[in-house]
Amino acid sequence: MNRKLNTFFDPETEFEADVLRGENLQRAFAGLQENLVNETLDETEWLALHAPVKQAANEAAGLAWTTAFPLLVFPALFQEKVDRARVRQDRAERIKAQTADLLMEAVV
Predict the structure, then answer these.
(1) How far is it, in rounded angstroms, from Cα 23 to Cα 30?
(2) Is pTM, for the whole model, over 0.70?
(3) 13: buried, middle or exposed (CB in 10 Å: 19+, 13-18, 0-12)?
């Protein structure tokens, strides 16, 4: 999928983009964070992951705000942190299952 695209813009070509700053940027960021957290929680099977997902959002938000483009950086940081939380939760569930098996063997 690596194709070189030759682009050409006339000298009169202009792009308009709203630059978000201050309160508008904070509102947009809060909306993005809320939407991503809600979407992730809707897709989450384990109730035990709800708190870690919210924590991941807060950590990712803190890191994203240290960059020049927090709206662009936040989704990737958030996804990485959620993926780590899922791996930890999966490991915890496996350990609980193994421990339950061992306890059943010890009791019998």
Answers:
(1) 10
(2) yes
(3) exposed
